[in-house]
Design a protein that fits this description.
Strand content: 15-25%
Bound molecules: zinc ion
Helix content: 10-25%
Shape: globular
Number of helices: 8
Structural class: alpha/beta
Radius of gyration: 20 Å
Order of helices and strands: EEEEEHEEEEEEHEHEHEEEHEHEHEH
Number of strands: 19
């Protein structure tokens, strides 16, 4: 029902693409991250929950049509609906039904609870297209309460020493999850990078509760000694950090589980918190679909394909350009918050 073309996943029966990487007439979008929502298509169809963040990412001229969770749009006999993926605000799985056959494209997803978006909804299907960002058995997330407790402890130690605490996380999704996770932790004041603050406004306007935050330019020297500062990875090592004076820094990502990654990132601390499924959650999610066929995209495709085949499923690796949220979201996030529209 779906095929991979030069522009990405294509449904010929319904004549639409899913997360195309080239401009197309009709693009169904799983979520607003730059590697999935690319500029230039004539029409975007996306989940209503993520409308504000998608608008911020795509710019004022994009034609965006939103649908409610589970609302069926029928096109040439193909029934298309969007269902929560639990990855970031508005992140969706795409369910496609045609002549009794069901395919589900998961986009990026996670099964952990997250107060900043609607939880992942398992769907039954014949063919499941899954990500494999952390598709290796070494990736197993600790309970996130432990991560937030460690983050608070680190902030408190810095504050007692008169140092600011700078936390790096992707401007869309991770930054807001960090903020929501410390909402009642007594941390403050909290300052943000412009790219983060702009998306905070979208999250708040979409009904997500976040603690009070201020744009970093609102603070003066001396205001930052007990501050938590949330910034995108692109701010790492930049002159933008000078205004904060003495500070410790930390990167928040699933990649922080690997010590080597931490060293390469050259930050003081790493906190493991991912917006993707870990290995056990990935396998559980696949099993819950009841799918007999699985396509595995971006990430550790081969180990996942091998495991699935060994367990009796029809599985294949599918090349995509949805590669490396890590890299694509590290670039092009300027302090105005508006410079990452195409990135
Ligand atoms: Zn994503």
């Amino acid at each position: 029902m779906l095929e991979l073309t030069d522009s990405g996943l294509y449904c010929a029966a319904g004549d639409f693409h899913i997360d195309p990487w080239r401009p197309v007439p009709r693009a169904v979008i799983t979520h607003a991250h730059g590697d999935h929502a690319r500029w230039g298509s004539e029409l975007y169809v996306a989940a209503a929950e993520g409308e504000r963040v998608l608008r911020t990412r795509m710019g004022p001229d994009a034609q965006i049509r939103t649908v409610a969770w589970g609302e069926v749009v029928e096109r040439n006999g193909v029934r298309v609906s969007l269902h929560p993926a639990g990855h970031i605000l508005g992140s969706a799985q795409v369910r496609i039904e045609h002549r009794g056959e069901v395919w589900v494209v998961s986009g990026d997803y996670k099964a952990e609870p997250d107060p900043t978006c609607t939880p992942f909804e398992p769907l039954r299907c014949h063919t499941f297209i899954t990500e494999s960002t952390f598709g290796l058995p070494i990736y197993r997330w600790r309970p996130q309460a432990e991560t937030f407790a460690a983050l608070r402890e680190w902030w408190a130690a810095n504050a007692d020493a008169g140092r600011a605490s700078v936390v790096y996380g992707y401007a869309l999704g991770k930054a807001q999850r960090i903020l929501a996770g410390v909402i009642d932790a007594g941390i403050g004041p909290i300052y943000t990078h412009g790219a983060v603050e702009r998306l905070n406004a979208d999250y708040r306007a979409s009904g997500v509760a976040l603690p009070p935050t201020m744009h970093a330019s609102a603070g003066k020297k001396g205001d930052f000694a007990r501050a938590l500062i949330v910034a995108p990875p692109s701010a790492m090592g930049s002159t933008w950090l000078r205004r904060f004076g003495p500070h410790s820094d930390a990167f928040v990502s699933g990649w922080m589980q690997i010590r080597g990654t931490r060293r390469r990132r050259s930050v003081d601390r790493g906190f493991v918190l991912s917006d993707h499924v870990d290995w056990p959650a990935l396998l559980a999610a696949i099993e819950a679909t009841g799918a007999e066929r699985v396509w595995v995209t971006h990430g550790y495709r081969e180990p996942v394909v091998r495991w699935l085949r060994e367990h009796g499923l029809e599985a294949e690796a599918v090349m995509s350009r949805w590669e490396g949220e890590l890299e694509s979201e590290t670039v092009a996030e300027d302090d105005s918050g508006g410079g990452d529209v195409a990135g």
